[in-house]
Amino acid sequence: MAAFLLTLLYLGVSLGFAMTNQGLGASYSARAAEWGRTNGMGWAVTWVETEWYKLNPAPKGGKPGSNAFSTNPDRIKVPKGVAHTPWPKRMVSPVGTWLPGEGIWHPVGRLTAKGVPAIFVTHVRVDKVHTSQVAGVAWMDSTLLRAQLYSGSFIPGPLPGGKAYQYSAPISSFNSRTLVAAFNSGFRIQDANGGYYTQGITVKPLRKGAASIVVYKDGALTIGKWGRDVKMTNQVVSVRQNLDLIVDHSKVVAGLNTSNSLKWGKVLGGSFNVWRSGLGVTKNGAYVYVGGPALSISSLAHLLVLAGAVRGMELDINTDWVQYASYSGTLGKAVNGGNGTNLLRQMSYSPSRFFAKWMNRDFYVMQLTK
Fold this sequence. Notes:
Blueprint: H1 2-18, H2 28-38, H3 42-55, E1 106-111, E2 117-125, E3 134-140, E4 145-150, E5 179-184, E6 196-198, E7 201-204, E8 211-216, E9 221-225, E10 236-241, E11 245-248, E12 251-252, E13 274-282, E14 287-295, H4 297-306, E15 309-317, E16 324-327, E17 340-342, E18 363-368
Antiparallel strand pairs: 1-2, 2-3, 3-14, 4-18, 5-16, 5-18, 6-7, 6-10, 8-9, 8-10, 11-12, 11-15, 13-14, 13-15, 16-17
Helix pairs in contact: 2-3
């Protein structure tokens, strides 16, 4: 009896601390869910989430709000002879026909020293069914950007021997001088069905066949199937795996709606229309990020394809964990969260999140190189 009461006391105190920890989520429900999964109650959390989404499905039909799309595209003139990846053409709407402003790309964030935008964003409806819901899409020029994986004390967890990660939140004042974007990574390592490698250390063994984000010493990033498209070399600085590819050879991978598949995510499966995010790489090497509400895994994959991805993977899901922020300001001068703008206004956290000490999850940073 004493042991039982002590266990209850420990769990109660632990839950109390969790409910005040911003790093576990913006909402109390998210913090409780993270606490439950950490304390061996992941099955119960998944059941509760599943039942909640059954009772509260994403809205069908309707139209987006009047300010969902910008109808005035910015016009940037780039000096002749300045190299950059060709900018994307208007993104096809998954609904089939455009609403005014839908799919039009707009430059965001800092420009290079020669006045070239490295990032463009657009917004489109998520699919033909949930027509009031809008996803954000970011296109990133790999020739102008340097990628870096920032690791977290919670995800992936501490390094062996208690070593500190070289790159972790908060983004330093020094590194913010060329910062142009930051965005979420993948699932908790326990749920990712994949490995994690950084700083020359394998935090969790890499799985052959897993969808993998690979960053190299020169700051280049790519996405591929581990062992087929990408493999370990002395130029690799980080590998973040998350489930299996959902886009391959410029097509949506078959069978994405299989319930509770380890390939596509055991947590909530693939058919629930929830907040999801994904990352892809295009034929000419650009990166595309998609994030938004009311997305099934197949609709997420479809949006990645429409954005030009030849290979793509799911990142994290649920409201508290999907975030993409771009940053403006004078190149070479330090910035902070106040200089940031979220891809979607309804994202739970402000762009200051990546500058907070309590940010304990891994994420990616894009910095200008020119």
